[in-house]
Design brief:
This protein is α/β, with parallel strands linked by helices and 330 residues long. It has a domain of 222 residues: Rossmann fold (3-Layer(aba) Sandwich). It is built from eleven helices and 13 strands. The strands form three sheets. The protein has a seven-stranded parallel beta sheet, with helices on both faces. Strands 7, 9, 11 and 13 form a four-stranded mixed beta sheet that branches. Helix 5 packs across helix 11. The radius of gyration is 19 Å and the shape is globular.
Length: 330
């Protein structure tokens, strides 16, 4: 099958690319000229230079492709210019979905995020039906992904867009080249530079399991449905303890209350604006999101797609191993 894949140079996209190639697909990857191409170097894929905001390039890229995997996204909890996230995540998604409709692409896998889902106040795992709204979205990233998913849903209903939505949880593993906000936390902790933590929880999954879930959604998923691709629900301190166990470092013992962490986050954001740092380690939106445990259930994907996930411990170990091999822990 001939596939167009966006986001192949990124974290989840690079994992999806490898699994598509292993399946024997002919994969064309949409790459911006400014992208770091280390994640696709040496792989047997067709590279096409284009941009989500260049509609002409999208029309050419989709030519003769049977399927589209739209994985590309601007994943930043903090951005100096938040409108950049809207441009990439919302407008870019609208552009490529319209191009796919025009090209009569047979099937589309759209990578959304668990960020678009509601969070249960009682800390039980949320699922695909847990209510959410724009008002509950914290920060530019979550708002942009919520708006993008709503647009895809609208196009499915009104324009018969042949799309299946997947909602990955927090990916961990190799090739987190940027790295992602979670990857940066793992790096800092593995280097022994995480002196304290806040009380929160995440659903973490190995990036390769999430990638395999994309292929399962393409093979078994129903158009118009969405599927959470997650892993284990763990408290942040448990994740930090797993990192310490593997690296031989000591996990932090100081738990900072959110009300104390918030002014620290304001200060680090201000410092980032002054110094030009791309993203501060502590952010206001990150602290506000951490007030709730972000737990999710993959039961629907497990039952209907055959999705499964390995223990979070393996994901953490694979991430640290890759970061170490590529100089992030020096």
């Amino acid at each position: 099958m001939k596939v167009l894949l966006t986001g192949a140079t990124g974290f989840i996209g690079a994992a999806v690319l490898r699994q598509l190639l292993d399946r024997g697909d002919h994969v064309r990857v949409l790459v911006r000229r400014t992208s770091n191409q280390n994640n696709i170097k040496g792989l047997d894929c067709e590279m096409f230079m284009g941009d989500l905001n260049d509609r002409g390039s999208l029309a050419v890229a989709l030519k003769s492709c049977h399927a589209l995997f739209h994985v590309a996204a601007d994943y930043r909890i903090w951005a100096r210019y938040p409108e950049e996230l809207i441009t990439t995540n919302v407008t870019g998604t609208q552009n490529i979905m319209m191009a796919a409709l025009t090209a009569q692409t047979e099937k589309i896998i759209y990578t959304s995020s668990v960020a678009t889902l509601g969070i249960n106040a009682d800390e039980t795992p949320s699922n695909e039906e847990t209510p959410s709204s724009m008002e509950t979205m914290i920060g530019a990233y979550k708002k942009s992904k919520f708006l993008a998913e709503q647009e895809v849903k609208r196009m499915i209903t009104e324009q018969s867009l042949p799309a299946i939505i997947v909602n990955p949880s927090t990916p961990i593993g190799p090739r987190d080249i940027k790295p992602t906000p979670t990857g940066r936390m793992i790096v800092q902790s593995a280097r022994g530079k995480m002196p304290a933590y806040v009380k929160t929880g995440l659903n973490v999954a190995h990036v390769d399991d999430i990638a395999r879930g994309h292929l399962l959604a393409c093979e078994q998923g129903v158009i118009g449905e969405r599927y959470i691709l997650g892993g284990e629900d763990l408290t942040l301190i448990k994740i930090l303890e797993l990192i310490a166990e593997y690296t031989g470092k000591v996990a932090p013992t100081v738990c900072i209350h959110h009300n104390i962490a918030l002014p620290i986050a304001y200060l680090t954001e201000a410092w980032a604006r002054i110094t030009g740092v791309s993203e501060p380690l502590a952010t206001v939106d990150g602290v506000n999101m951490a007030r709730k445990k972000m737990y999710f259930s993959s039961a629907k994907a497990e039952k209907l797609l055959g999705y499964s996930h390995r223990p979070a411990k393996e994901a953490v170990q694979d991430a640290i191993k890759w970061f170490g091999q590529h100089g992030y822990l020096d």
